[in-house]
Amino acid sequence: MAPVEAGSRIDRIADAAARGSDVWGRSVLAPADRDGDALFGPVSGAAFSAGVETIYEGYLVHHGARARVFSPPDREQGLLLGDYLYATGLVQVCEAGDVDAIAALADLVSLAAHVRVTGAGVDGELWLATVRHLAGPRTDELAEARDALRAGDTTALLALVADADALPLLAEHRRLMGDA
Fold first, then answer.
1. 33 touches 74 (CB < 8 A)
2. Is residue 121 situated within a structural domain?
3. 108, 130 Cβ separation under 8 angstroms
4. How many domains does the chain have?
5. pLDDT class for 140, splitting at 50, 70, 90?
6. Domain around 39
7. Could you read off the pLDDT of 82-128 as tens digits, one per residue?
8. CA 12, CA 4: separation in Å to the nearest integer?
């Protein structure tokens, strides 16, 4: 378990959720029980980092073995908390005024959930390719990779993240998801 640094992006997500609702506050893990820190947010660029990391925490609440800073008491509250985190993250991204970024993240959330459920095993690669796209340069490669992925072909997506810098990020994603 990787400890969370005091005052980290993850702590700020937990604190904001707890301030927003007593229900979410009861799901926040004690600081000593928190696991991990910002993963995909820093890759996305400063304008999107907070929103991406909040959306990713929602994804972990919905689909992961456990989230980094939340432990909802049951599946229903987990689904509501995950949805809250998705919405909060999208609002944070909206502050940048980048409609293409919002569309890319909305597509990411739905396609990554689909990939997760179907067992294609490339949701981490999809996350990484999307946040790299947000940081730029923005090309048609991500859209083409997503289209191919929807058709069952992972080749183009895997090519977007076939580098040494991707390995630790993908390994941490797999650990958080319970796939490692």
1. no
2. yes
3. yes
4. 1
5. very high
6. 9-177
7. 999 999 999 999 999 999 999 999 999 999 999 999 988 999 999 99
8. 11
Number of neighbouring beta carbons within 10 Å of residue 75: 9
In which residue are the tokens 């696991």 written? 35
Q: Note the pLDDT tens digit of each residue in 32-68.
A: 999 989 999 999 999 999 999 999 999 999 999 989 9
For residue 2, tell me if it sits in a domain.
no
- Is residue 113 in some structural domain? yes
**What phi and psi, each to the nearest 5 degrees, are found at residue 34?**
-75, 150
Whether the per-residue pLDDT at 136 is higher than 60: the answer is yes
Cβ neighbours of residue 165 under 8 Å, at least 6 residues apart? Answer: none
Which residue's structure tokens are 């396609």? Answer: 111
Report residue 102 as tokens. 């919002």
Dihedral sign of CA atoms 46, 40, 18, 90 in order: positive
Q: Is residue 4 part of a domain?
A: no
Counting every residue written for the chain, the total comes to: 180
pTM, full prediction? 0.94
